[in-house]
Q: What sequence folds into this?
């Protein structure tokens, strides 16, 4: 089975997808469906009207006029079909993913604890609060929370990630998703959602676009498009009396053709496809947004709250340097650090081994039987007893207390080294044996590569980044400086985080954040864009308005970029659609009246062959431009991080000026073709 | 165009450049209620007015309350003005013994002056008594202008205030605008005009014997004072039928240029006021730039067209300038002004919703007349009427931001205020309502044979005459193309309705937008915010005005001026 999130080549329109979308284009002609889209709905209505008048006049007019009217009506109908096709293609991708997801939702049996006994019931009959037992190899019957046990779970059906994850009761990793499979061990799960409302169900509905609602910005844009459409209704309706006054009464088909060319059909046809494709781009990156509103808000965000650990830094402190103190030799320090870390399986311990191997080329053969001293909360040290030496490493104060208890004095330069490491945002780990303090291992939070550049990009887009960390202000400042974030919140509690969000929002800014723990839930709910990690708790997932299936907090930045790209695409195509009108006017209006006023030939700047070919070419251009722009609507306008002024200049040039100039060329070419084929 | 024509244009631009910053800042102080040295003069007058009318000058109004006060006040003004016209025969200051106006004409005129349109279906010297001119029409010239500025200021407040339900007080704005802005400047301007030959008296008409031996009746009147506010308040309703072409209203080249300056003064300055009141002068500068370029473009085009001459005049007419010939298309123009300066006057008057004329638009070249028409079709925003020009342009800025703002990847905002569905609905109504009135009314009127009979010309020029009348009234300009006899029952009523809706439907929409924006919190600017204070945005604003508003009129402009032009040049 292909996983629903497997990325596919975005621009290849698979034959199956096209076949399905073509069928849907006709199904969507149903006026009740089309009424959701005011612009295309009215195109359908006037096309029917034009067809009626064409049929009525069939016997009266000349053959040439009939043929012209017939072809024009046909192309008007094609315009509606093309618009439907755009939406159907965008939905089609989601539908294919939904089908794949549905297959994983195969009905399973659940073992439910009821009235003291365990019953086998179909998973579809589970209700919130039911408690189920799930063993190795079983499919988890519904969304829930582990109340007993620990297990490895294969979540590839949802995330596409094949490595199993650990889920356990209590803490922040207790949530399980229906449709995933337990690989080992035995857990007891309390069901937290009813059938039809599970995560999988919501995911299917989302990718399918079934629960798609218009976003606030789409509604506002719809109002503008409807307004323009209404005013053009009046422009056309009032044109006939003016034409009659000028002794140039127009045929109904020509008036409808002018009308359809003038109203913003391009953006009207592509608007919903742009929205669906935007959501789809998120799904491609394994992020599920519960509403289009959240995607729009992501584009508007001006403050990103980023957790230090896992987002900005790798999360594991790594040894980066060895600094001897009290005149000790660096190789003695390296040897002691290596020996004391040989059997230390923590990431920090391993990083010390790697550092010593890599920098000091020391063999890792221990000089005899080693006795490992594990870390204890009491001594706050760990170490090894080997070859008669006691080697310890730990926090500066702990190690100093130990050496002093043995009558060893603390070297004078130790305090200075510890302080400079702390100031640098690192953690000093002091290494000593029973005879002297050898030196300090510099452990450091390593900032992920490329973060500084990304934050700089965000800054040019006007987005402020705030690093959230539990570290002390000194360490936090050092890492914040290194990573290049704009601000940081040190020793952050959930309340501090909440206060920060409220403060930013109070200043009118929109805030985006990621979170996974239950104590993140209020902040996730408060933030304008709250991205919950899929590995997080159910509470966090409920509170946020997006879920990242990969649990990769860095993705917040991608989400913001997708939101911006969605809005840019919408704006660019709106501008394009409106500026297109200039050329269409120059094609159609002179053509309408040139018989009565031959001097109007001067306005035929495109030198179109005849009035009929001019009108038909404009109508055909108007229909074809929809299809031509479908790939752009689905892919989104090219987005590059830059300041608003630069982006505006670029897009105004391409879509504003280009939208004004391009149709002159397009209509001319179609006119040549239409004339050559003699179809008018 | 001659060197003199270009020089006049440049002198005008320079005089505006000097005056606009001063005037703009002054109005910002007036409407912010700042303490001023002039308080000693104005405060007692204002306080007296507040006491007499029972206005609490400290309390502010919501947009609904502001709009209700405005509509109530304007409704009362219409009734009062209607009454004066109907009863003027019984009232004093009637040296010419003029009788009552007919009911449809009195209604049309009352609406016309209260809506700042000043469309005149009557002839001032014969139809109106001095009392009606001074206490009726001139008073409305002040008040309708003050109302317009008040709405613009309320919209500025809505844009710049945060999370508030109030937009200031209609009554305070009305009083302050009249007492501190319009009256003092009108007084100064009247003195300048009178000093340069505009008449100012209360005399009955003088009957004189002309050189040729005929008898001519020369009217009197307080013309300089009326002329000043006619231009300053972008009203345009002249005391004489010939308007600023009449030598008693506009005697020479200097007064001509001065009147042009006067009618452009407040509309341009208000853009500056917007910059000062919003605390972002560059925002005001962007709006000012867009207004200036639209105005200068149309003025220079019409000046060049008229100076070039009219092919309809035929080979027998010399249109080249020489020592003895003014040159250009001089039909319907005054020799003392010349063709290009006349075009400068009329383009400025149509671009400001003033509607006064110093030459007859009907005898302009086809495209020259088309420029006058298109100026009004843009919705009177270049720079538009006092107040209405600014609020119209700001609403176009909201539309521009909405269309293009998405292109920077954020939902649209202007001055930090998010433009959402509620505002978009009102913006769409504001921008599309007037084209709709104009087109529907023109289509109906031109389809009725009896109304077509009011047209002087037929064919394309006749269409221009008809569409000009409805464009002028719906946009509250008031200038007449001439060639259409508007004093019929149908036209008086229809044009009156166009003026009423064109004024008050838009004012209510503008105030509702102000109310909706005022309630919102402002989003702080960042590098990701669409910059609305740059030359690029000014260009965008012009583009949206021309494309979105202009295109709705393209078919009718094609069938009118463009067809006429192409036929005459074919």
A:
């Amino acid at each position: 089975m292909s996983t629903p999130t497997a990325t596919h080549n975005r621009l290849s329109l698979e034959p199956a997808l096209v076949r399905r979308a073509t069928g849907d284009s006709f199904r969507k002609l149903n006026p009740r469906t089309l009424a959701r889209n005011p612009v295309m709905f009215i195109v359908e209505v006037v096309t029917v009207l034009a067809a009626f008048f064409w049929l009525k006049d069939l016997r009266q007019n000349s053959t040439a006029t009939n043929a012209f009217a017939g072809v024009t009506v046909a192309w008007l109908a094609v315009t509606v079909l093309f618009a439907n096709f755009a939406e159907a293609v965008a939905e089609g991708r989601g539908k294919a993913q939904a089908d794949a997801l549905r297959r994983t939702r195969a009905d399973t049996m659940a073992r439910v604890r009821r009235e003291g006994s365990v019953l086998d019931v179909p998973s579809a009959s589970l209700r919130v609060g039911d408690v189920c037992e799930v063993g190795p190899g079983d499919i988890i019957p519904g969304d829930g929370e582990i109340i007993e046990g620990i297990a490895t779970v294969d979540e590839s059906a949802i995330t596409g990630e094949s490595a199993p994850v650990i889920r356990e009761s209590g803490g922040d990793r207790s949530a399980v998703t229906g449709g995933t499979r337990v690989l080992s061990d035995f857990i007891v799960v309390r069901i937290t959602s009813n059938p039809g409302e599970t995560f999988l169900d919501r995911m299917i509905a989302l990718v399918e676009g079934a629960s798609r609602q218009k976003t606030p910005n789409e509604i506002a844009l719809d109002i503008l498009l409807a307004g323009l459409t209404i005013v053009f209704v009046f422009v056309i309706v009032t044109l006939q009396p003016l034409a009659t006054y000028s002794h140039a009464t127009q045929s109904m088909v020509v008036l409808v053709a002018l009308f359809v060319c003038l109203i913003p059909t391009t953006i009207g046809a592509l608007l919903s496809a742009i929205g669906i494709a935007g959501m789809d781009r998120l799904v491609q990156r394994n992020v599920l947004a519960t509403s289009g509103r959240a995607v729009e808000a992501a584009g508007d965000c001006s403050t990103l709250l980023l957790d230090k650990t896992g987002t900005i830094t790798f999360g594991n402190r790594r040894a980066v340097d060895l600094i001897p103190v009290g005149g000790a030799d660096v190789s003695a320090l390296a040897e002691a650090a290596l020996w004391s870390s040989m059997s230390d399986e923590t990431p920090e311990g391993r990083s010390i081994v790697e550092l010593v191997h890599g920098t000091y080329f020391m063999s890792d053969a221990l000089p005899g039987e080693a006795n490992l001293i594990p870390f204890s909360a009491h001594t706050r040290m760990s170490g090894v007893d080997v070859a008669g030496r006691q080697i310890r490493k730990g926090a500066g104060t702990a190690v100093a207390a130990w050496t002093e208890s043995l009558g060893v004095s603390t070297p004078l330069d130790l305090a200075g080294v510890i302080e400079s490491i702390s100031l640098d945002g690192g953690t000093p780990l002091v290494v000593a044996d029973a005879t002297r303090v050898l030196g300090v291992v510099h452990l450091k939070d390593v900032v992920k590569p490329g973060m500084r550049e990304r934050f700089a990009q965000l800054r040019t887009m006007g987005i402020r980044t705030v690093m959230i960390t539990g570290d002390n202000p000194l360490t936090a400042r050092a890492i914040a400086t290194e990573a290049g974030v704009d601000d940081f919140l040190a020793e952050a509690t959930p309340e501090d985080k909440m206060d920060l969000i409220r403060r930013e929002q109070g200043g009118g800014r929109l805030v985006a954040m990621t979170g996974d723990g239950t104590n993140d839930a209020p902040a996730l709910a408060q933030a304008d864009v709250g991205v919950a990690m899929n590995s997080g708790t159910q509470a966090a997932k409920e509170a946020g308005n997006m879920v990242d299936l990969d649990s990769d907090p860095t993705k917040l930045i991608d989400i913001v970029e997708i939101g911006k790209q969605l809005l840019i695409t919408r704006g660019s195509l709106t501008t394009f659609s409106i500026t297109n009108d200039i050329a269409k006017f120059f094609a159609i209006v002179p053509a309408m009246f040139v018989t009565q006023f031959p001097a109007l030939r001067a306005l035929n700047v495109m030198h179109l062959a005849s009035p009929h070919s001019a009108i038909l070419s404009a109508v055909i251009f108007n229909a074809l431009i929809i299809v031509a722009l479908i790939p752009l609507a689905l892919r989104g306008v090219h987005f590059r991080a830059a300041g608003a002024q630069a982006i505006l200049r670029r897009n105004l040039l391409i879509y504003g000026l280009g939208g004004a100039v391009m149709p002159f060329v397009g209509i001319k070419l179609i006119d040549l073709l239409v004339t050559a084929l003699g179809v008018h | 165009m001659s060197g003199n024509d270009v020089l006049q244009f440049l002198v005008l631009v320079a005089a505006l450049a000097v005056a606009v910053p001063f005037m703009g800042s002054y109005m910002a102080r007036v409407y912010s209620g700042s303490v001023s040295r002039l308080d000693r003069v104005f405060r007692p007058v204002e306080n007296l007015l507040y006491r007499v009318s029972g206005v609490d000058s400290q309390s502010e109004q919501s947009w609904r309350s502001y709009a209700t006060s405005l509509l109530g006040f304007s409704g009362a003004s219409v009734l009062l003005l209607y009454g004066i016209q109907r009863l003027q025969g019984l009232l004093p200051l009637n040296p010419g013994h003029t009788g009552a106006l007919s009911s449809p004409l009195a209604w049309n005129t009352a609406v016309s002056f209260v809506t700042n349109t000043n469309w005149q279906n009557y002839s001032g010297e014969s139809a109106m008594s001095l009392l009606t001119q001074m206490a009726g029409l001139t008073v409305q010239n002040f008040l309708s202008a003050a109302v317009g500025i008040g709405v613009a200021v309320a919209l500025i407040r809505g844009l710049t205030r945060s999370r508030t339900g109030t937009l200031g007080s209609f009554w305070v704005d009305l009083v302050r605008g009249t007492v501190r802005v319009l009256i003092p400047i009108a007084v100064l301007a009247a003195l300048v005009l009178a000093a340069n030959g505009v008449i100012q008296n209360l005399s009955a008409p003088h009957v004189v014997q002309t050189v040729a031996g005929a008898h001519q009746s020369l009217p009197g009147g307080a013309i300089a004072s009326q002329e000043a506010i006619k231009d300053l308040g972008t009203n345009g309703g002249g005391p004489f039928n010939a308007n600023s072409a009449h030598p008693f209203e506009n005697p020479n080249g200097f007064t001509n240029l001065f009147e042009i300056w006067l009618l452009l003064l407040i509309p341009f300055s208000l853009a500056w006021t917007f910059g000062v009141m919003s605390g972002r002068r560059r925002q005001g500068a962007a709006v000012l730039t867009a207004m200036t370029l639209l105005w200068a473009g149309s003025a220079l085009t019409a000046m060049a067209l008229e100076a070039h001459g009219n092919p309809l005049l035929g080979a027998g007419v010399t249109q080249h300038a020489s020592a003895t010939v003014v040159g250009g298309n001089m039909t319907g123009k005054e020799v003392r002004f010349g063709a290009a300066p006349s075009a400068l006057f009329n383009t400025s008057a149509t671009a400001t919703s003033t509607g006064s004329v110093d030459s007859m638009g009907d005898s302009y070249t086809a495209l020259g007349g088309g420029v006058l028409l298109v100026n009004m079709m843009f919705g009177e925003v270049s720079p538009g009427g006092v107040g209405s020009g600014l609020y119209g342009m700001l609403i176009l800025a909201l539309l521009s931001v909405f269309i293009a703002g998405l292109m920077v990847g954020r939902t649209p905002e202007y001055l930090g205020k998010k433009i959402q569905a509620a505002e978009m609905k009102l913006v769409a109504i504001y921008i599309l309502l007037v084209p709709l009135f104009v087109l529907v009314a023109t289509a109906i009127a031109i389809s009725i044979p009896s109304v077509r009979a009011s047209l002087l010309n037929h064919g394309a020029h006749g269409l221009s005459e008809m569409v000009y009348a409805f464009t002028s009234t719906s946009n509250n300009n008031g200038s007449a193309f001439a060639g259409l006899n508007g004093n019929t029952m149908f036209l008086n009523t229809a044009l009156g309705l166009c003026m009423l809706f064109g004024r008050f439907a838009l004012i209510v929409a503008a105030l509702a937008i102000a109310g909706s924006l005022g309630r919102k919190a402002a989003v702080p600017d960042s590098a990701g915010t669409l910059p609305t204070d740059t030359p690029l945005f000014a260009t965008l604003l012009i583009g949206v005005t021309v494309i979105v508003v202009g295109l709705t009129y393209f078919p009718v402009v094609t069938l009118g001026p463009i067809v006429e032009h192409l036929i005459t040049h074919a």
